Amino acid sequence: MRVIFQSDIKGVAQKGDIKEVKDGYARNYLIPKGLAVEATTGRERELKDKKMRQQRREERERQAMQDLADAVRNQVIVVPAKVGEQDRLFGAVTNADVAQALQNLGHAVDRKKIAMEPMKHLGERQAVLHLYAGITAEITVRVEPES
What we know:
The chain is an alpha+beta fold. The protein has helices spanning 23-30, 41-72, 95-104, and strands spanning 2-5, 18-20, 36-38, 76-81, 88-93, 114-115, 119-121, 123-132, 135-145. It has two domains: 2-60, Ribosomal Protein L9, domain 1 (3-Layer(aba) Sandwich), CATH 3.40.5; 67-145, Ribosomal Protein L9, domain 2 (Roll), CATH 3.10.430. The longest helix is centred in the middle third of the chain and has 32 residues, at 41-72. The N and C termini lie far apart (72 Å). The mean pLDDT is 92.
C-alpha cells in the first residue's frame, strides 16, 4: 500500500515522503495513529503543489535576503552612545543596538543574525550579517558620542 507520511518516523520515512509499505503496517499502525494517510492521486497532487509553493516561498525569501545584503554591504552604520572618560562608553554597543540602527535605516534584521563583539569604546568595527544560508554581508559599525 502506498502511503504519504504525515510525520517523521525514525528509520522509515520523513514527513511528506510517499512510500510503499505492507498493508498490515499501514492499516493497523500508521493510519490509525495519524502517522500516514493512503496515497491517492488527489493527495499526491496536493502534496506536490504544497512542495512547489514552499519552494517558491523559500526562493522569494532567499532573493529578498540577497537584495538586503546588496543594499547594506560595505555600509557604515552609525550608533550614538553615551560616553564617559577616555571615550569609554556607559555600557556597550551590542548587536541589538546595531539591529535597531539598521531598523531606523529601513532594513529589518534580527539581532541574532548580526555577529560582532560588544563595543565599549568609540570607533569603528566590522560586523557580519548572516542573513540566509550562504548569504552574508559585512558592515562597518561606527560608535559616536551622543549629542
